[in-house]
């Protein structure tokens, strides 16, 4: 169960808000993808991810040596709505466009198996996008 004080404490940091917005749009990302997208060192990103996992905002899955983070599917509706609104609004939306463009340009981005979130939906991972193509907030890639 998520506590509202933990939830709002997580949202109090800009880097964590940026990472949450990216995870909302990309569905799941590895630590190295998040480091590249938000232009932060790995230890800093890992500390933020640990805080978000402890607060139950994120869940994680292992795929070989890679750890993939995503917004916790068990997040209460009220918390999900707040993160969703934050992702689509104001300064966070502007940073999200910049961060997603940066992520799209990431060299040697880790490849992952088509995970069940992609197998059942018409959404594909961002790797299928042409390098350098601009990404706007709210865009979904469809085959």
Q: What is the number of strand segments?
A: 3
Supply the CATH class: Mainly Alpha
Overall CATH architecture:
Orthogonal Bundle
Which topology does CATH recognise? Arc Repressor Mutant, subunit A
CA distance, first residue to last residue: 36 Å
Please report which band the strand proportion falls in: under 5%, 5-15%, 15-25%, 25-35%, 35-45% or over 45%: 5-15%
Shape: globular
Individual helix count: 7
Mean pLDDT: 79
Question: Over all CA atoms, what is the radius of gyration?
Answer: 14 Å
* Proportion of helical residues: 40-55%
Task: List the helices and strands in order.
Answer: HHEHHEEHHH
> Could you give a short account of the major beta sheet?
3 strands, antiparallel
**Quick one: CATH superfamily?**
Winged helix-like DNA-binding domain superfamily/Winged helix DNA-binding domain
Q: Which structural class best describes the helix and strand composition?
A: mainly alpha
Q: Please, how many domains?
A: 1
Description:
- The protein is mostly helical and 143 residues long.
- It has a single domain (4-105, 115-128), classed as Arc Repressor Mutant, subunit A.
- 51% of the residues lie in helices and 10% in strands.
- It has a three-stranded antiparallel beta sheet.
- A hairpin with a 2-residue loop joins β2 (58-63) and β3 (66-71).
- α2 (14-26) packs across α6 (90-104).
- It is globular, with a radius of gyration of 14 Å.
- The termini are far apart.
